[in-house]
Amino acid sequence: MKTILQIVLWIICVGLGYLIYRSVTGPIEFKKIKEERFSKVISSLKDIRNSQAAYRSVNGKFANDFKSLVAFVDAGQYTITQQRDSSYMEFDKVYGIDLLREVTIIDTLGFVSVKDSLFKGDDRYKSMMNVPFAQGGETFTMKSDIVDKGGYKAPVFEAKVKKDVILYDQPKDLMSRENAQISVEEVNGPEIRVGSLTDVSTNGNWPPIYDKKGDQ
Q1: Which of 46, 58, 73 is nearest to 205 (CA)?
Q2: Which residues have CB under 8 Å from 125's CB, separation 6+?
Q3: Taking the domains of the chain in order of start, what are their residue ranges?
């Protein structure tokens, strides 16, 4: 009986030791995995934002789906222009004299490919809708709209994904804490997103540390 009791106590001690070890190392490992995966996801969201900005500069609005956005990046072109001031003399019938007229002339210098400008020969834009690390083939949710801001009709868009999709294999207690984050140093809330359907903004909800790791 004494030997059996010693074995049982030893097993209990080992179990408690492991639980203490995991309580310390678990959050550290979670943070490392989280930051690695979030960095990849945010990099894709930046590609989406840059592509949407290009789409708007040409079309005056944002794309509502990835098919349209990818097709635009693949074949779209920026118009390169140059603005210059000029003047000329024109006879004024009212005053009966020649008057100096000043005008602004916009010259078209050429065109540049959107995909070459944004992606430098990389074709990752073709898969920018896919969420990195997602196990079920999930894609980012993306929508665009027009909102009224003080009488001004402004185009807006939003692309997002739930943290649960990215951290699908992480402990539920740590995920619950992560989804409830409220901190200037963390991605707040249960989603990672860029843009907004209610505010005129193309910002992301991630902290500056993810921009310092290499902006797109």
Answers
A1: 46
A2: 47, 51, 70, 73, 74, 115, 118, 119
A3: 38-74+120-212, 78-111
Taken in order 42, 129, 72, 203, the sign of the CA dihedral is negative
The Cα–Cα gap between 56 and 47 comes to 14
Using an 8 Å Cβ cutoff, are 83 and 103 in contact? no
**Span 126-179, pLDDT tens digits:** 999 999 999 989 999 999 999 998 888 999 999 999 999 999 999 999 999 999
Can you give the pTM of this predicted structure?
Answer: 0.76
Q: Give the whole-angstrom CA distance, residue 203 versus residue 187.
A: 13
Q: Burial-class residue 189 by CB neighbours within 10 Å (0-12, 13-18, 19+).
A: middle
